[in-house]
Amino acid sequence: EADIYQTPRYLVIGTGKKITLECSQTMGHDKMYWYQQDPGMELHLIHYSYGVNSTEKGDLSSESTVSRIRTEHFPLTLESARPSHTSQYLCASSEWGPRSSYNSPLHFGNGTRLTVT
Amino acid sequence: TQLLEQSPQFLSIQEGENLTVYCNSSSVFSSLQWYRQEPGEGPVLLVTVVTGGEVKKLKRLTFQFGDARKDSSLHITAAQTGDTGLYLCAGEVFNKFYFGSGTKLNVKP
Question: Does the pLDDT at position B1 exceed 70?
Answer without folding.
Answer: no
